[in-house]
Amino acid sequence: MRFTESIRITCPRERVFAYTQDYGQRLVWDTFLREAVLMDGATQAGPGVKAWCVSWHGLGMETEYVSFQPSLATPAQTGRLSACPPGSGRTGAEPPPSGFHHRHRGMGSMRTNTELWTAAGFGVLAGMRSMTAPAVLTRELSRKPTRALKRALPGLTSKKVSQRLGLLALGELVGDKNPKAPPRTALPVLSGRILSGAVTAAAVSRKRKGARIGFALVGAATAIASSYFFVGFRRLLTQRLRVPNVAAGLIEDGLALALGSRLTQALR
């Protein structure tokens, strides 16, 4: 998939050029990335300088400036995609892909697909443990939020909110083992799980409002499916396999925490 986008900026070209190539400001305006650094001790961009950029879901790219002229709109660069950071075992000997001259080419479609699966994963987690889903999300988003992320998701990037949701999630894990706890498919309880799945799934999308609504619907739908699935799963363990309710709950807790760990990795 190839795509282009353009905007009109009423500012001298040299000033725009200097701002976009200042890696101290890169994460302020480039919402694709969670990491952007110059390599090999370089302090500013220029011919022969290499840069390392990583998307929010771990897709990294090493690029090298082959020209650097402030009178032009953008510098010319070549680069290669990678799933691992610099210094982690890559040989660096392979040549850049033919015709590959822009760091974001093809990243949009991969990012969207990854976000969609992550959104669905949060819906599944909400169906398992309604408070664990937002607790996992806020714990990761509050670690080192960028300015853009703070503006987009002010509540979910707060460390205080993360701590409170963590306590609520812990309380839910304990309460789940109570035999008198209402079934998760009861309308009030199910509604909370649907809301949890919708909110966490919508927060995964970094795109415009329409995309977030779609992700919210995905999260809500998977939360419903997950709720009914894990009701059947618990009945299988307790009624057919004769596993004690507490042990069955702990098994589900383990699955929920494992899923939460994978979703945390997907957000990075």
Secondary structure blueprint with pairings:
Blueprint: H1 13-20, H2 26-29, E1 33-38, E2 50-55, E3 60-65, E4 77-82, H3 107-128, H4 132-141, H5 147-152, H6 159-175, H7 187-204, H8 209-240, H9 245-267
Antiparallel strand pairs: 1-2, 2-3, 3-4
Helix pairs in contact: 3-7, 3-8, 3-9, 4-6, 4-9, 7-8, 8-9
Q: Give helix and strand order, one letter per element, not per position.
A: HHEEEEHHHHHHH
Estimated structural class:
alpha+beta
As a whole number of angstroms, the C-alpha radius of gyration is 22 Å
Low-confidence stretches: 81-110
Distance between the termini: 23 Å
Main pleated sheet: 4 strands, antiparallel
Q: What's this entry about, in short?
A:
The chain is of the alpha+beta class. It has helices spanning 13-20, 26-29, 107-128, 132-141, 147-152, 159-175, 187-204, 209-240, 245-267; strands spanning 33-38, 50-55, 60-65, 77-82. It is built from 9 helices and 4 strands; from the N terminus they run H-H-E-E-E-E-H-H-H-H-H-H-H.
List keywords for this structure.
268 residues, alpha+beta, 4 strands
Written account of the structure:
By secondary structure, this protein is an alpha+beta fold. It is 52% helix and 9% strand. The protein has nine helices and four strands; from the N terminus they run ααββββααααααα. The protein has helices at residues 13-20, 26-29, 107-128, 132-141, 147-152, 159-175, 187-204, 209-240, 245-267; strands at 33-38, 50-55, 60-65, 77-82. It is elongated and about 70 Å long.
